[in-house]
Design goal:
Elements lengths: L19 H9 L10 E4 L7 E6 L5 E6 L12 H11 L9 E5 L2 H4 L3 E5 L9 H4 L4 H20 L16 H16 L5 H13 L7 E3 L8 E3 L5 E4 L6 E3 L2 H10 L23 H12 L6 H24 L14 H16 L3
Antiparallel strand pairs: 1-2, 2-3, 3-5, 4-5, 6-9, 7-8
Helix pairs in contact: 5-9, 6-10, 7-10, 7-11, 8-10, 10-11
Length: 353
């Protein structure tokens, strides 16, 4: 979902992955006030499912999500599942964008997709985006990020109709198996350290509590922020499942940086800017809000680094095969080296467990 600065400037040829005529017809059947023709723009920032801003001639805006182009791993880009999760969370206190509808007919746009309302706000992806906020707003953003994560983990999956989304036991073991399998399916070269860390993590799996809703990729730039810094929508639910909520916290800490600390990815870290809470403060606040035992957090940080390396190897593989549409190739060309660095960080974190 875009920030206000990401909106398309003018109508033109639809980007790869969009059949403008057929999507327009589909959307017109669901939005009585639709004013064609529609403008579509691929939004940068995501590295998996493709996200587009859709604007009609009256200025109404929506967001369309679809899988990457070309061959993709079977379960990683399930539009119906993502649509189901967001719809189930709509009545809760977890902020999500209202859903317009799901299209499961490949004949319409070449792949399933869903459309949701546009939520106005800003996504902080790097330090230049962080400069749009004052230190007080950044402080509120960090607080809200943890508060919303605690809310997600407090939702009873069965109460909202997600009790059968996944098994309720053995989450970490299942995740280690899943991501190892997907890494093997998408790997582009030999990376012995990935196998070493996988073996380490399998030997260190902690005792896990009751299953909760796990976002799977919870981080600052997967949340839309309002003017005060408050999280107004949580985005990108494609990896959501049921399992150990501390996996979300561990991954959030992987992405988070304290002042002067290098980021997990090759961008200038946003969370190191003045005003944002430190990692220790985020961890303390989550523990306070949820009452969960977070003493084994280093395991979840190690798992987060390793899982991210698996994901980026898949992205790099799809980029190499031309499956990411007309995105800027510079955005993906360095991912091969980043996978190795993330694996080394995972190994270092596992050594602290």
């Amino acid at each position: 979902m875009p920030s206000s600065n990401d909106l398309p400037a003018e109508a033109g040829t639809a980007p790869a992955g969009i059949n403008a005529a057929q999507v327009t017809t589909w959307l017109a059947d669901r939005v009585p006030t639709l004013a064609p023709p529609l403008r579509f723009e691929l939004i940068t920032g995501g590295h998996s499912n493709l996200t587009y801003c859709v604007t009609d001639t009256s200025g109404q805006r929506w967001v369309l999500r679809r899988p990457p182009l070309g061959q993709v791993l079977a379960t990683a880009h399930d539009m119906g599942r993502e649509h189901r999760i967001i719809s189930a969370l709509a009545p809760t206190d977890v902020p999500v964008a209202p859903v317009v509808g799901l299209c499961s007919d490949d004949a319409v746009n070449g792949a399933p997709f869903y459309v949701m309302d546009f939520v106005d706000g800003v996504i902080i992806r790097d330090s230049s985006d962080a400069d749009l906020f004052t230190p007080a707003q950044r402080s509120r953003a960090g607080e809200s990020l943890i508060e919303v994560l605690a809310r997600i983990h407090a939702v009873d999956p069965t109460t909202v109709g997600l009790g059968d989304l996944a098994r309720h036991d053995g989450y970490i073991e299942r995740q280690l198996k899943r991501w190892h399998r997907q890494f093997e399916a998408s790997r582009t070269r030999d990376l012995p350290i990935m196998e070493e860390v996988h073996a380490q993590l399998c030997d260190l799996v902690p005792v896990q509590g009751p299953a909760a809703i796990v976002h799977g990729d919870y981080r600052l730039d997967n949340c839309m922020l309002g003017d005060s810094g408050e999280v107004v929508a949580v985005l990108d639910w494609e990896l959501c499942t049921l399992g150990d909520p501390l996996a979300d916290l561990g991954l959030l800490l992987v992405y988070w940086t304290d002042p002067g600390e290098p980021g997990a990815l090759s961008v200038t870290p946003a969370s190191g800017a003045a005003g944002f809470p430190t990692k220790a403060e985020l961890l303390s606040r989550y523990t306070e809000l949820t009452g969960r035992d977070t003493s084994a957090i280093d395991f979840y940080v190690a798992f987060g680094y390793w899982k991210l390396a698996c994901i980026l190897e898949g992205v790099f593989s799809r980029y190499s095969g031309g499956a990411m549409g007309d995105r800027n190739s510079q955005e993906f060309s360095g991912f091969g080296d980043t996978v190795q660095l993330l694996a080394e960080a995972a190994q270092a974190a596992a050594a602290r467990v």
